[in-house]
Amino acid sequence: MLSLLGLEDRYLHDGRVLIEQLHGWAVPRSLRTHRETLRRLGEVYKQLNAPFGSFGMNTLAASTRAIKSGSDADDSTYTTLTAQIESLTAERDGVAAQMRAMLGRAAFEDQAINERQAMRLIAQGERLLAQAKGLNP
Hints:
Layout: H1 2-5, H2 29-32, H3 35-49, H4 54-69, H5 76-108, H6 115-134
Helix pairs in contact: 3-5, 3-6, 4-5, 4-6, 5-6
């Protein structure tokens, strides 16, 4: 709604403009340029960052499996999976922050995205999604 009305607010955005649902004339030029790349970036961002996105659901399943795996004598599976989840989450946080900033600049600062950088972020995000999925055999 903010983008459609040309308004801004002061809080940190954790979403994106749903350009798939809008006519091209209804969104700023910065969202029309490289529209398909922006759409893909937004989709990957959602899967990485949303609580019920695939990253969150896969790491939750792996965490649950890790908790169930341990015994008083051997917590190696728990320790290994927990370390992998922490590492993936830290990397996800960095990639998601870059995606959020790029999406925000395009939506509210009328800055066209750098397509090469966006494609790199999409690839990094897809790799992280695959790694999170791989935690669950």
